[in-house]
Design goal:
single chain, 300 residues, Chloramphenicol Acetyltransferase, seven-stranded mixed β-sheet, three-stranded antiparallel β-sheet, 10 strands, 22% strand, globular
Length: 300
């Protein structure tokens, strides 16, 4: 299996491949037939929840911020990095299904919503982080900083996807609906113009929603039939909870819940289980995030 963005991008394109991924031709019968029988992503969602002990991660973030960076490190930065490293080391998570075919995405990326201002009337912007095999927590932190600054700058364009939606929204309804249906027809076949989907979060490897930042708990979030995103991660609010020892005693630790919705057609349950264990290991041993995303991690 090819690993890393560079190797995937350099793969020679063949008939049946898409601009954003290549067709997986050598798959078992189950993974070939299932997308034909169950073509809609929303009908194939598997939901998994995981609880992360933040003891080590809190200390790690505090140490990073002791250097007084201009843009502070946060738990969310570590979570984005850990998810991207997990996808890099577990490449089946970077698969997607379109038009009943299974593809391997040729890039690894994460997207999330950025609130421009914390008030009821404020607009939302889209942030899109592209990962490379050599990316680390520090480089991803810097890219998130750049994205957030752009989104919160009222003088900057919201991005080609948002701009295109704004134009369509101003058209007469009969015309806008016809255009949207045409776009959906093209999108299903991987023929949608790039300027329409360049910044679309549903074309990322994973979408993250930081509900903890607005004082909400984690939970289920649906996938969409639009786009190619196969994973949605919801980050909940931190809370103190008991951690039990083998002798029945307990200590209070700060914990964080993650909710992951995954397209179950892209891999099997064992692969998902092992991937979740890796994600948990990375977040509870955050020093691993300072190594390049492509650096292997020993885990069972």
């Amino acid at each position: 299996m090819l690993k890393g963005t560079t190797a995937l991008e350099e793969r020679k394109r063949r008939f049946g491949d898409r601009k954003d991924g290549y067709l997986l031709r050598d798959v078992d019968a189950m993974h070939y037939i299932t997308p034909i029988i169950y073509p809609n992503r929303c009908d194939n969602e598997a939901y998994v929840s995981e609880t992360i002990d933040l003891t080590n991660l809190n200390a790690f973030i505090a140490k990073k911020n002791a250097e007084k960076p201009e843009f502070k490190y946060t738990l969310f930065h570590a979570i984005v990095t850990a998810v991207l490293k997990t996808i890099t080391l577990r490449p089946q998570l970077n698969r997607f299904i379109a038009n009943s075919n299974l593809y391997m995405r040729n890039k690894i990326s994460a997207s999330f919503i950025v609130k421009k201002r914390f008030n009821d009337k404020s607009e939302e912007g889209l942030a899109f982080v592209k990962a490379k095999p050599e990316s680390t927590l520090d480089s991803i932190h810097d890219e998130i900083k750049r994205q957030v600054i752009i989104v919160r700058d009222d003088k900057q364009s919201s991005g080609s996807t948002q701009d295109s939606m704004d134009i369509i929204n101003k058209m007469p309804r009969f015309l806008s609906k016809a255009i949207v249906r045409l776009i959906m027809f093209l999108e299903k076949r991987g023929k949608c113009p790039q300027f329409l989907i360049a910044d679309d979060p549903y074309y990322a490897s994973v979408i993250l929603s930081n509900l903890g930042s607005i004082k909400l708990n984690s939970g289920y979030h649906h996938l969409t039939n639009w786009g190619t995103c196969s994973i949605f991660v919801v980050v909940g609010e931190k809370a103190m909870r008991p951690k039990y020892n083998e002798d029945g005693t307990f200590e209070m630790h700060e914990m964080l819940d993650l909710g992951l919705t995954i397209d179950e057609r892209i891999a099997d349950g064992y692969y998902f289980s092992k991937s979740i264990r890796l994600l948990k290991l990375l977040l509870e041993n955050p020093e691993l995030l300072e190594a390049p995303l492509s650096e292997e991690v020993d885990f069972v």
